[in-house]
Amino acid sequence: TKAGRAADDLLKVRKEKLVRNLSISYKTPMKIVRGEGVHLIDDRGRAYLDCYNNVAQLGHANPEIVEVLARQAALLNTNTRYLHDNIIAYAEKLTATLPKNLTVAGFVCSGSEANDLALRLARNYTQAQGTVALDWAYHGHLSSLIEISPYKYKRKGGKGRPATTGEAMLPDAYRAPADWPKAEIAARYAASVTTAIDQLAQAGHKPAAFIAESLPSSAGQIVLPQGYLKAAYAAARKAGAVIIADEVQIGFGRVGSHMWAFDSHDAVPDIVTMGKPIGNGHPMAAMVTTREIADAFFNGMEYFNTFGGNPVSCAVGLKVLEILERDRLLANATRLGQSLIARMSKLMDRHDRIGDVRGQGLMLGIELVEDRMTKVPATDYAGRIVEKCRQLGVLLGTDGPHDNVIKMRPGMIFTDTNADFLMQVLETAFAEVA
Ligand code: PMP
């Protein structure tokens, strides 16, 4: 029937037919049947304000995106072995948003593929095997990326840190060691990149790459201290590493002030990886690098990606960039982000267990603790707040090493009315959840 199967039936069959490792949100899973702008609509017709999905940055089922996608799909979809206008126009427009030295693009289908390709380029260019990643980082689901994702290999089911991975400290200002002077936090965290390189050296490996998100997200919505990224990049370069900025989650203007979050730290990487919001939900991703690194990779072996860079994906990608610019959505993210951070910070006056409120643009986090002095993570409380918000009509998530950070990444098309509703729901949830 048109209504499809009931939610509990889907859940039952899902457990039988799909890999069990898939997680599902909420105690009572939701069956979402439709998306419209910043809203997701469930099987009972109830609309929820989606404050979690950064992929649909221009709104769910954005009609302009759907139109351009459908039109190109009706005309042609094929691979990169033929000339096509779309891929060239897209490569030009995308690289124009990046620092001058980043001129050569590779198109793939997921953030994981983009990071894997970046690693291949870095290892080829340096002829080294090691990678330095930040503690609690997540860079993707491929074998090569689980190996550089402490968020995975340190947790249940993981095999621990491989000898080819060095772990630099997560530059978390809120949880910086108590005896560090405030003015030195950025430099001390950056110094741990060198410690990680030493860790690699002890295992007999040189660093091919330093990879970092320019606003670590899975690690708990960590806004990097000013000065950190520049110093960390310099330390890694000194040891011969190529710098990979993983902008898969934070890229495309989410920080508001800039298109790319590394730009807000006045730091320039050698490779940038992008995904998630790049196609507003259409599965596509990209890697952009320098002429020199790209040329070194051009070693005789073909690079072929069946779906990467196809005319449909490139048409969608072009439209996404066009809308971001036309509708001045970065400015919107800056304005709403600042106001939301101010309003969420006010909640701290009334609620002791809010330890920290942080963010950049529309990448926001509220860290919950049992006690502001000890900062013991309030994991269960965070989960209950998120459940309550769902009951009240707002979708959020939790993340971080202890799952105690409420994570918010609303669409770039968020409005004042949406922000008011989010605040109203958060206020009620904090007032009502014990
Ligand atoms: N890098 C980061 C920072 C991510 O957040 C993700 C996805 N959560 C990935 C890479 C992997 O992207 P995908 O799931 O599209 O492979």
TrEMBL record:
Annotated signal sequence is: none
Similarity annotation: Belongs to the class-III pyridoxal-phosphate-dependent aminotransferase family.
What is the name attached to this protein's record?
Aminotransferase class III-fold pyridoxal phosphate-dependent enzyme
| Biological source species | Dongia rigui
